LRP2-binding protein (Schistosoma rodhaini), 314 residues
Amino acid sequence: MERSRPKKFTIVKWLDEGDEQCAFYLGQIYFEKEKYNEAWNYFRMGYEKFNDQKSKFQLGIMLYDNLVSKDVTKVSNPQAKACEFFKEIMTLDVQIASPVDQRNLVFSAAFNLGRAYYQGYGVCSSTEDALRCFLFAANNGDSKACISAQTALGYLYSGPEICDLQKAFQWHSDACGNGSVESQAVLGVMYLYGIGVKEDWDNALFCLSEASARGSLYAKANLIYFYYRRKMFTNVCYLASRMVTCDNFMTSECIQTFQCRAMSMACFLYALCLKSGKGVQKDELLANQLFSKSVEWDSSLAARYVNLVIAGEL
């Protein structure tokens, strides 16, 4: 019977008594405190001494993300070694009769290996292999990795290599149904612009509002854009004024590029309102400062918005 996580001093005592899970628990405690060298040592003990696959997975994560120096790991190519660990974990049994923890561990390894193939870190970049790993990880929505894989598939199918927008919409819908705020934000954008689905502003408003309330900056920025196009300038200014001073980026699955784009959108649209006095008292000085910030966050998006303004489309 698996015990709930005990206190640190108790774990050390159990480790001394030969409990096979304790090295992993101690490693996890240090990992969450960002004491990565200590975490590495305990995870390595868990894997090398007890063949604990959870410890092995965490070693892979630490190698892939370069959380420990090569002087400590003694590994010349951390990403390649991480991918080797993930591949080995993927060979574990995932049948229904298998322990849930083991199944989820395999799906997590598959997601991370898919990410490696997509990014080309530790393995040769391959959309085909990334797709294979993500599809395997998304096999069942019973773990965080499966949901992340469903979101990743949504992005992969909307990319230039595959470009099947209907499948992209379907995978984002599945991920959203399983709780992904990132996919919910993307669905709002797809409904807003009619990408892979018929344009539907009611559904766009619902998805963007829900994802925004759950903390998605990307959803909030597109909600601001939605309000701007509907000439609801008071709503634009209310949301944007709070967002442009926000420095609390989400650290879950939201991609930094989208966060920068979101900040650029909010700054630019709020600046337009300030410059013309729509929904807020006119303030050209602040408007110019925000135009500059928009460029700093995402120069290509700011340039596109400038062209839309010149063409009278924004």
